Amino acid sequence: xxxxxxxxxxxxxxxxxxxxxxxxxxxxxxxxxxxxxxxxxxxxxxxxxxxxxxxxxxxxxxxxxxxxxxxxxxxxxxxxxxxxxxxxxxxxxxxxxxxxxxxxxxxxxxxxxxxxxxxxxxxxxxxxxxxxxxxxxxxxxxxxxxxxxxxxxxxxxxxxxxxxxxxxxxxxxxxxxxxxxxxxxxxxxxxxxxxxxxxxxxxxxxxxxxxxxxxxxxxxxxxxxxxxxxxxxxxxxxxxxxxxxxxxxxxxxxxxxxxxxxxxxxxxxxxxxxxxxxxxxxxxxxxxxxxxxxxxxxxxxxxxxxxxxxxxxxxxxxxxxxxxxxxxxxxxxxxxxxxxxxxxxxxxxxxxxxxxxxxxxxxxxxxxxxxxxxxxxxxxxxxxxxxxxxxxxxxxxxxxxxxxxxxxxxxxxxxxxxxxxxxxxxxxxxxxxxxxxxxxxxxxxxxxxxxx
Length: 452
What we know:
By secondary structure, the protein is mostly beta strands. It is built from 3 helices and 29 strands. The strands form 7 sheets. The chain has a 5-stranded mixed β-sheet with strand order 26-1-29-28-27. Strands 2-3-4-5 form a 4-stranded antiparallel β-sheet, with no helix packed on it. It has a 4-stranded antiparallel β-sheet with strand order 6-7-8-9, with no helix packed on it. The chain is globular, with a radius of gyration of 20 Å.
């Protein structure tokens, strides 16, 4: 087995300068074709893609960053802070540079999608200077300020409309300029528990629903919950270029909005906004569809038993119209997983979690799972890659990990055409990284969930 430690034209010297033409990739695929779909220059049908990993860094004065999404033209969105416990600010990485996005009167913000449409367009959420009348802490920043969905167009920030409520969150944005997100209604929901959720949000008072903004500024349509299941709230987490969205549906008592979004039902909304229940792996405790590609293939996380929680027992899933939902499993000896992204070539990314709650970024290729740490070539600047959040058509992956210096930074993993194995995936190794305590606290907050 030979690995050449070099990459094709997406190498670190010019990877931010790439420009890809978005081809029309909307034709229906057979399930077998999807499972075997590979990039056009793979050497064999079962070859294993390797990756060159770089540190995306942080703005001056910060030590923490997290990359959330990457567009087909290489624009990366995310957030940065002095540490995760300090105020977080929305950032984008473009042409090798980090740029902070202007806030909306408050101290915290985050970007969850960005594209280049003449000028940079980014979407996300930001605290305002106004106090929420219900003190909901909708976005989990720990304060009592309103948190609003935001569109950054160039250097200008604009609040996207809600459904009459006080809060919302936006992201991602597709190639047509449509934005998926979640917005509060003006109706008090009596199903809400009145307590702070495990992810730090709440106590929730108002109802909320998934929404689609754009392509022109303003609200286009509401993504209704599964009313036939008795659901009253919904949250939209991803949208493809065809206008299909995915997320979760339930009641205010058993559903959480972002950042830790799940409900009893994983949902797909078609282009007309009609919801479809994607099923589950055995239980309605915690389910969420987290990403959908342009072929209509969905990935996410689902609970196989009623004892499942987000950090113990929830499993990554793959859903197709032909075969429905099936589990993608975990790394050996791990207890939970989640699939956070899928590109049009069928590469799936996500996270696998061990019994101690330690996550590792993972990649599914050809139906097999591997730690992204094991697929990295050369001298990686990271001790361990924790979460993989976003993937584009070229197969570039973004997320965050622990650097050799012990800080948490966003990473970019670029596939290397001249670093392909024709042998099976490498044997999984468990890197005994020393994870800073504040990082463990951050992970614990993200993964904790009710046992319903």
